[in-house]
Specification:
This protein folds into 2 domains: 35 residues; 76 residues, Arc Repressor Mutant, subunit A, CATH 1.10.10. Helix content is 52%, strand content 20%. The model has no long low-confidence stretch (mean pLDDT 85). A hairpin with a 5-residue loop joins strand 2 and strand 3. The protein contains 5 helices and 3 strands, in the order αααβααββ. It starts with a helix and ends in a 6-residue tail after the last strand. It has a 3-stranded antiparallel sheet with strand order 1-3-2. Helix 1 runs antiparallel to helix 2 and helix 3 packs across helix 5. By secondary structure, the chain is an alpha+beta fold.
Length: 122
């Protein structure tokens, strides 16, 4: 079993007890469908950039659950630097989201969104 398969297996075992069955099935499908071929050979920045290109956005929690990344802001910073150095027309914007934690307390988090400078309306 590859390290990435082992990680997904353990993550799903952990989540199965924590989530309602319907939500768990959605998460399981999402995680298995979103597995990147040869991801263990990629850098964290490459994995996240792939995700951004495919899905358009990512949150810190998604980085952690899907790719095992504990500090998403540093990975996003590396991607921003890489895009800038490449002279890419893409950039990463942030959007603040509001919600509740598991205890009902108000909380905020950032959603990182991949945008194209050429496709923006002026």
């Amino acid at each position: 079993m590859k390290k990435s398969e082992y990680f997904v297996f353990n993550l799903l075992n952990y989540l199965e007890d924590k989530l309602e069955p319907e939500l768990f099935n959605k998460v399981r499908t999402y995680i298995k469908d979103d597995t990147i071929e040869n991801a263990e050979k990629m850098t964290q920045a490459d994995r996240v950039l792939n995700h951004l290109k495919e899905h358009g956005s990512i949150t810190n929690m998604q980085c952690h659950l899907l790719y095992g990344i504990r500090h998403c802001p540093s990975v996003i910073r590396n991607i921003k630097r890489k895009l800038l150095l490449q002279g890419s027309s893409f950039y990463i914007d942030t959007e603040q989201k509001n919600g509740c934690d598991r205890y009902g307390n108000n909380t905020r988090w950032l959603k990182y969104i991949l945008k194209d400078k050429n496709n923006e309306q002026k």
